[in-house]
Design brief:
Layout lengths: L2 H17 L2 H22 L9 H13 L4
Helix pairs in contact: 1-2, 1-3
Length: about 70
Amino acid sequence: MDKYLKMFEPAMRKWLSEHYSPEVAKARWERIVALDEKRIREEGDLGSKRNPMANNMLEAYAFSLSTIR
């Protein structure tokens, strides 16, 4: 799990638990983690310190994962 998803994990899990049953929330979190790992493999290094906007993109991506059906 990348550092952005790890950083937002508590808030995302809270949101999932407020909107879904425990079973569905758990399944959705597992899918979020899998998609995050897939994204990291496919997109690779976005430039980190050389690309200050990469942080914004990764944070937005982490939040958007919680809405995937």
